[in-house]
Amino acid sequence: MIELDKNLQLDEADFECLPIRAQGAGGQNVNKVSSAIHLRFDINRSSLPDICRERLLALNDKRITKDGVVVIKAQQYRTQEQNREDAIRRLVELINSVLVEVKPRRPTKPGRAAKKRRLDAKTRHGQRKQLRGRIDL
After folding, report:
1. From the centroid of its chain, how far is CA 56?
2. % of the chain exceeding 90 in pLDDT
């Protein structure tokens, strides 16, 4: 079990980590060793609460497919275990970003004093520009 929140845990059976060969430079070793990790997490079949699943599916993230599967590829480190931990950490960050409640924005209007300050500043700016004009003698 992976701790997401103080009262929410993620079961390790909900995702699968497949070892794959990493891309990029690495010499002869890159063709022999599967050190990168391909993590797949099916949102619809997970043990997460319904609200969390809905928010994850509503995210506009390139890592989430149309079928509702989160695909994370981790190949930053040289060892398979470090890449696995990195992929799980990134999945937990993605889920935790959805758990945060977003406060609704209430539109506000400027107060009377702020309006007066703005108009006074406009008047001063206009007067300053008028003083820069051509002088007729």
Report:
1. 11
2. 18
Structure tokens at 97: 């970003």
pTM (two decimals): 0.62
Outline where the chain has alpha helix (H). 50-58, 80-99, 112-131
What is the overall mean pLDDT for the chain? 80
Say if CB 8 and CB 51 are below 8 A apart: no
Longest distance between any two alpha carbons in the chain, whole Å: 90
Taking each helix axis from N to C terminus, what angle separates 50-58 and 80-99, rounded to the nearest 10 degrees?
A: 100
Question: Who contacts 68 (Cβ-Cβ below 8 Å, separation ≥6)?
Answer: 42, 43, 44, 56, 57
Contact 99, 8 (CB under 8 A): yes
- Phi/psi at 124 (5° precision): -60, -40
Contact criterion met (CB below 8 Å) for 98 and 63: no
